[in-house]
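ok, trying the design again with the full structure, not the truncated one.
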């Protein structure tokens, strides 16, 4: 399918769509797609990675495909969610920091800070702007899809560990993206497969789940990803399509001024909003700055064609905050060794 790129290129803003690629090299069709004015970034997956050298070549090709300098992101949380492994450090699951926190809070915070730096330093050297992390959900013994991706079982510990981790990430020139606002830890269902429903009242969420989000917003968290979860006692729309959650709560009461990025709109939990293009429009109208669409090329094309115009200059300006910062010492042997030692010392 041919993409209409017949538009002025001078000072074009980044568009409101982040999409994926099929393999380890950029195809001619993908290069054309990335030049569409509605595209603002690329998310990479395990299928896009063979080794660090190949990944660096791919990120360079993405940047050369469009003169706007598209954002490049990945899910590199650690544990069972780490897309790039070969030739990079195997990162621990977040819950291991929580186990150490129960024994020695100071050591756990130092470890989180050091490992956050290492994750970001490795990715920045390969041309990645940011990772979709940290997970700010509180592990409540309910959600298997969250589980050990959460730092801890109490809001205070999650907030403290995620805060330290973000300090490390930012010191390596990378932005953070907290997820899954306002909290995915209280539901058993997997939003990749269905739409979970959390029936707790707002007061219950404010007393627990929202604490880590508040803490990191105050710290300067650059981006946020809402959950494909419906909080039925509060709003009929899932958080990612809810003006209440994104505009009134996140922008208003919590005073978050960073980038709001939808979770993957190809997930079953997003199906309530209709076809892919309708999902993207609903997410942006609710308050998202960037619509994420993965693992469905025809859907991605439909989304960018539906969003030829209409995104805001405020959103485009916010997206610039996610660019990785250059000019930092990312080969610091002392910092790297401290992080590796911290990983070795984490409880299993």
């Amino acid at each position: 399918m041919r993409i209409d790129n017949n538009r002025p290129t001078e000072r074009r803003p980044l568009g409101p769509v982040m999409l994926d690629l099929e393999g380890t090299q950029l195809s001619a069709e993908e290069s054309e797609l990335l030049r569409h004015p509605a595209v603002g970034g690329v998310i990479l997956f395990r299928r896009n990675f063979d080794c660090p050298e190949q990944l660096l070549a791919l990120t360079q090709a993405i940047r050369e495909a469009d003169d706007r300098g598209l954002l490049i992101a990945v899910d590199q949380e650690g544990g069972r969610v780490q897309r790039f492994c070969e030739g990079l450090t195997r990162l621990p699951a977040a819950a291991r920091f929580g186990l150490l926190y129960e024994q020695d809070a100071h050591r756990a915070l130092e470890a989180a800070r050091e490992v956050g730096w290492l994750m970001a330093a490795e990715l920045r050297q390969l041309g990645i702007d940011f990772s979709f992390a940290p997970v700010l959900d509180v592990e409540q013994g309910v959600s298997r899809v969250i589980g050990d991706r959460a730092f801890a079982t109490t809001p205070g510990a999650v907030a403290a560990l995620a805060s330290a981790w973000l300090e490390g990430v930012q010191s390596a020139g990378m932005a953070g993206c907290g997820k899954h606002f306002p909290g995915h830890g209280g539901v058993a269902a997997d939003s990749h497969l269905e739409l979970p429903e959390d029936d707790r009242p707002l007061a219950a969420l404010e007393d627990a789940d929202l604490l880590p989000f508040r803490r990191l917003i105050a710290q300067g968290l650059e981006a946020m990803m809402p959950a494909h979860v419906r909080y039925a006692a509060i709003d009929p729309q899932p958080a990612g399509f809810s003006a209440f959650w994104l505009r009134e709560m996140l922008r208003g009461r919590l005073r978050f001024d960073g980038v709001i990025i939808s979770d993957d709109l190809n997930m079953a939990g997003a199906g309530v909003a209709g076809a892919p293009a309708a999902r993207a429009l609903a997410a942006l109208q609710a308050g998202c700055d960037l619509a994420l669409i993965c693992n469905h090329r025809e859907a991605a094309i439909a989304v960018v064609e539906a969003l030829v115009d209409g995104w805001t200059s405020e959103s485009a300006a916010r997206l610039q905050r996610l660019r990785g910062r250059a000019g930092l010492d990312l080969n610091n042997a002392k910092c790297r060794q401290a992080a590796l030692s911290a990983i070795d010392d984490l409880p299993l």
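Keeping the full-length input from now on. Strands lie at 17-20, 39-44, 71-74, 76-78, 81-82, 130-131, 177-181, 223-226, 259-260, 291-293.
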